[in-house]
Amino acid sequence: MPRFFKNPVRADIGALPAIAASLLLLSGCVSSGPSRQSVLNSTSTGVVNGIRVLDVNDAPSRELRSRPVPGFAETLAGPPQVGTIVNSGDVLEITIWEAPPAALFGVSALSTSQETSRSTSLPDFIVGPSGRISVPFAGLVTVAGKTPPQIERDITERLRGKAHLPQVMVRLTRNATATVTVVGEVVNSTRMPLTPKGERLLDAVAAAGGTRQPITKITVQVGRGGQVYSMPLTAVVSDVRQNIALRTDDVVTLLYQPYSFTVLGATGRNDEVNFEATGLTLAQAMGRVGGLQDGRADAKGVFVFRWEDPAVLAGGAGSAIIRADGRVPVIYQANMKDPATYFAMQGFAMKNGDILYVSNSPVADFQRFIGVITSAALPIVQTENSISN
Length: 389
Known about the structure:
The protein is an alpha+beta fold. Helices cover 27% and strands 26% of the residues. It is built from eleven helices and 17 strands. Strands 1-16-15-17-13-14 form a six-stranded mixed beta sheet. Strands 9-8-12-10-11 form a five-stranded mixed beta sheet. Strands 2, 3, 4 and 7 form a four-stranded antiparallel beta sheet that branches. A hairpin with a 5-residue loop joins strand 8 and strand 9. Helix 1 (8-26) packs across helix 11 (362-388). The radius of gyration is 37 Å and the shape is rod-shaped. The model is unreliable at 1-31, 43-48 and 109-113 (pLDDT under 50).
């Protein structure tokens, strides 16, 4: 008998314990994530309770895709501010006229026939923390929270009976409080003062010098009253209703590709993928990550994991887990062996924070298992044969 086949039975039996030990150590390497069936069975096995699983072709998914996303026009719209409100820190210029014969302000004692009305410009008034200014012969006048015409009427009433037919003009020379802050992907961050004209969102973008990136990749965010609202800048440019009037203390932030999703599993790329404000469909997302990995991916096991607002789901939260912010976990499945799925994927929008997962196919797992056995058993058998020889 050739030396290669010497004691073949003893070599195989002796190698079994070592092979078994190696398989136990390497069994965790066979699969890089949950299989399609384990995901679909998660709600029935109790492994993950309260998770809703929906197919991208199901009616609830189609209803979700058809819901319009509220824009600025639906959440922040309102008429422009009428007039400018004066507040602490602003600077006012006050001019007073008297009809002849003047009694108080700046008219020289000329003959009656030559007396004419003259104006008196008072030094600039800085509105202090009290919100009041001291006007000669009118006393302390509250100006904070009022418009210039309201302040004019107030001072005129206080001077009536002291000055001869007084007329008052109040002008806001430095607006330090009625401003909008513009930051982010703009040429120059700025604080834009608001005027009675009623500046709008795109006015703020223009005042900051425009964007530093293409507008198709920019999200515009408006912070107002402790809430933050976002829209693609292209939607604001193309729809005049979304070009809303701004309010005092609004914060306008321009963000470049602010959204991202994470891709895991049997795809050509495992990574965090940024996408632009104009949105990204599931079909486009699959293209950006290189599609399914040939020979490894389960085409029936494409999943999107998302925390969803129960208000947009048919039936609401139901028995699903509810997170602290009120959202519920939802898994969307796409069977890419079904031709209809490809049409549904073109309308299924990815959201910020989504996880796209592609499971391994059972055949790929079996092939990897065989590969582990081969890689573990062959060196051991060869070693046993060498010792026996």
